[in-house]
Amino acid sequence: MAEPLLVLDTNVVLDLLHFDDVVAQPLRRALEAGRVGCVVTESTQAEWRRVLAYPEFGLDAAQQAALCAHYQALSVPMGAAEAIAGLPRCSDPDDQKFIELAAASAAQGLVSRDRAVLKLRRRCAPHFRIMTPLEAAGWLDGLPG
Questions:
Q1: Which residues fall within 8 angstroms of residue 124, CB to CB, at 6 or more apart?
Q2: Beta carbons within 10 angstroms of residue 85's beta carbon
Q3: How many domains does the chain have?
Q4: Residue 15 sits in which domain range?
Q5: Terminal CA-to-CA distance of the chain, rounded, Å?
Q6: Could you give the 3-state DSSP secondary structure of residue 131?
Q7: How far, in Å, CA of 52 to CA of 64, rounded?
Q8: 3-state secondary structure of 70
Q9: Which of 115, 122, 119, 83 is nearest to 102 (CA)?
Q10: What is the CATH number of the domain that holds 15?
Q11: How confident is the model over 113-144, as pLDDT tens digits?
Q12: In angstroms, rounded to a whole number, what is the distance separating the alpha carbons of residues 48 and 68?
């Protein structure tokens, strides 16, 4: 059986790979062990590269490249996410790509800390679950292996 797939918004990826947030560590360990996969598109990876270049993170080109390579190693690439009828629209247009990717990839969940995304939990429930990193850690505890 293939590993369950998740979509991670960019802030969660930052927590996992740059900040090493303690709440996100169970998710990072599960990704690194291959218990779950992180599905990405060119659009989500482009956002990751763009965010890493923000001056407030103080990352030089080599650090950015290393973080990009780590994210890519944990990722399952997918072509552009097709629009799925009936999906709710996120109030933050930048986050819509994550909603569409979760639905198009048949991911088990979308992991986010973003309020605009979290507000869509009930409306997205027929397609996939939306979880905070802490909720994702609890969800991981229920997976076999």
A1: 87, 88, 99, 102, 103, 110, 130
A2: 5
A3: 1
A4: 5-141
A5: 12
A6: strand
A7: 6
A8: helix
A9: 83
A10: 3.40.50.1010
A11: 999 999 999 999 999 999 999 999 999 988 87
A12: 8
Q: What residue type is assigned to position 87 of the chain?
A: L
Question: Per residue in 33-74, pLDDT tens?
Answer: 999 999 999 999 999 999 999 999 999 999 999 999 999 999
Torsion angle, alpha carbons of 88, 91, 97, 102, to 10: -40
Of residues 90, 97, 84, 19, the one with CA closest to residue 58: 19
Strands (E), 10-85: 37-40, 75-77
Q: What is the dihedral of CA 37, 41, 45, 47, to 10 degrees?
A: -120
Cut 0.90: pTM above it:
yes
Q: For residue 16, what are the CA distances in angstroms to 9, 27, 83, 94, 137? A: 11, 8, 28, 20, 12
Strand partners, 129: 109
Of 52, 107, 51, 49, the closest CA to residue 78 belongs to: 107
Say which residue the tokens 């800390």 belong to: 113
Residues for the chain: how many in total?
Answer: 145
